[in-house]
Write a structure and sequence with these properties.
The chain is of the alpha/beta class and about 475 residues long. Helices cover about 40% and strands about 20% of the residues. It has 15 helices and 20 strands. Helix 2 packs antiparallel against helix 4 and helix 3 crosses helix 4. The longest helix is centred in the first third of the chain and has 25 residues. Bound molecules: NADP nicotinamide-adenine-dinucleotide phosphate and magnesium ion. NADP nicotinamide-adenine-dinucleotide phosphate binds next to helix 7, helix 8 and helix 11.
């Protein structure tokens, strides 16, 4: 893997102020595959200055011209699709098919969507005797996690650029190589110097410095609830805009009229994809008590198919593996019944941070494995008595990011979905839509990403009265 021994600031690759570095590890074989600089507060300051200097020019660039730059960026990402996929396989451990389709494919689609939106968005509107201008917020500090490393970057950086903002990115320490590839694409696309800046580094050092920097007008963060709370508090103290995309414990509700086998199979696939490291994963499956035993058998059988390294990769690092194993042990202690997987190392994992695809039955709503985000390949099956009981259980966590409803009749599923406190609901297996707003109710976060709603996050309004 290629690793730059530099940060991308003001349109050039330059050495970090300090000598700290981060070793990037392949979680499938635990080998070091590259080293990147650990930027510090001085580097963050240099990057924020570069973004501030570039802001007036970029904000004044006509939206159609910004759109053309983003189309060029999309083309540069598309030209690197194979390299992106290989890099995500190497630093995250994603199986190659998933890496190509999702980790490379989705960011290219999202970047293309903003090339179109920037060209067509109404940056001015007329309301009565006012003209309302939608103006870029300013310099954006973006802090991203490792789970969908390039998607998380593009879902923040590209709408910010489309809006006319400039950006400093601090990517996750586990997956900095694909962030460097993104910076290469920005450079090759010929975006003006300073509109995008990359500071690799550690969360509590570079991430914290970025969140606290007075030259940053908006902080957009995706990651754990614990860090999100701190960033929200810092932004509140400084009265600056903040967007938080935090955890989830989403419910997959299978109503009695649904195609049970299909709902269970799609539901298990949803949880096992990306080794369970998906904030929107449907980690609780809610099944009517009359169909419960059949659903448990189907889920156990479906999960077993993921017990190969080709189908399901390792977790991102040893710490996450231990955290997930800890939750599996906790589920057993709490009295849930293991019907697939478990905390032992899988037999195919000589090295690598692998965890077995795991299914728990007899999970009750108050158990930790039914309440807390595990962020691993662990599914909890919970039984419900009637529709009201299902609504109560589905809404009974602090989270509200995603979910699913299955029913024989679409209208029945939609009626149920209206009662859910959550940002997205897939009806009878509806496909992911990269233009639909994505974000949380309750403690799953503040703000929305993707599509036109994601663009609006990076805009201020100014009303002119005539
Ligand atoms: P995390 O620490 O919240 O990491 C997210 C990002 O925030 C990373 O870039 C991280 O840098 C940075 N960061 C860490 N501490 C910071 C601070 N004090 N100030 C500013 N930025 C800071 O998440 P994690 O430790 O990687 O994962 C832990 C758990 O978070 C997971 O088990 C999962 O439950 C949840 N999670 C959720 C999502 C999601 O999509 N919502 C994604 C990933 C994880 P470093 O990389 O250097 O830590
Ligand atoms: Mg962390």
């Amino acid at each position: 893997m290629k690793a730059h021994d530099a940060l991308f600031i003001g349109g050039t690759w330059r050495a970090a102020a300090g000598s700290g570095s981060i070793e990037v590890v392949n979680p499938a074989d635990e080998q070091v595959i590259g080293t990147v600089p650990a930027g510090d507060a001085q580097d963050v300051d240099a990057a924020v200055r570069a973004a501030r200097d570039a802001f007036p020019g970029w904000a004044a660039t006509p939206p159609a011209e910004r759109a053309a730059h983003l189309a060029a960026l999309r083309d540069q990402l598309a030209a690197r699709a194979d390299e992106i996929a290989e890099t995500v396989t190497a630093e995250l451990g994603a199986p190659p098919v998933l890496a190509q389709k999702v980790h490379a494919g989705l960011p290219i689609a999202v970047t293309g969507s903003y090339a179109e939106l920037a060209a067509t968005y109404a940056f001015e509107e007329r309301i009565g005797n006012s003209t309302v201008l939608h103006e870029p917020v300013g310099v954006v500090g973006a802090i991203t996690p490792w789970n969908y490393p390039l998607h998380q970057i593009t879902a923040k950086v590209v709408p910010a650029l489309a809006a006319g903002c400039t950006v400093v990115l601090k990517p996750a320490e586990d997956t900095p190589l694909v962030a460097q590839l993104f910076a290469e694409a920005v450079e090759a696309a010929g975006l003006p110097a300073g509109v995008f800046n990359l500071v690799t580094g550690l969360g509590p050092v570079a991430g914290q410095a970025l969140a606290e920097h007075p030259g940053v007008d908006l902080v957009s963060f995706t990651g754990s609830t614990a860090v999100g709370r701190r960033i929200g508090a810092i932004a509140g103290g400084a009265v600056k805009r903040v967007a938080l995309e935090l955890g989830g414990k989403s419910a997959n509700v299978i109503l009695p009229s649904a195609d049970l086998a299909k709902a269970v199979n799609v539901g298990v696939a949803n949880v096992m994809t990306n080794s369970g490291q998906t904030c929107s994963a449907w980690t609780r499956m809610l099944v009517h008590t009359d169909q419960y035993d059949e659903a448990v058998a189907l889920a156990a059988e479906a999960a077993a198919k993921y017990a190969t390294p080709e189908r399901m990769g390792p977790l991102v690092n040893g710490g996450q593996r231990e955290r997930v194993r800890g939750y599996i042990a906790r589920g057993v202690e709490e009295g849930a019944r293991l019907v697939a997987g478990g905390a032992q190392t899988p037999e195919y994992a000589g090295t690598g941070y692998y965890v077995r695809p795991t299914v728990f039955a007899d999970v009750t709503p108050e158990m930790a494995i039914a309440q807390e985000e595990i962020f691993g390949p662990v599914l909890s099956l919970i039984r419900y008595r009637d529709v009201d009981d299902a609504v109560r259980i589905a809404n009974g966590t602090v989270y509200g990011l995603a979910g699913a409803v299955w029913a024989g009749d679409e209208a029945e599923a939609v009626a149920f979905a209206r009662r859910l406190e959550t940002g997205q609901v897939d009806i009878n297996g509806g496909r992911f839509n990269p233009l639909a707003p994505f974000g949380g109710y309750k403690q799953s976060g503040i703000g929305r990403e993707l599509g036109v709603h994601g663009l609006a996050e990076y805009l201020h309004t100014k009303s002119l009265q005539f």
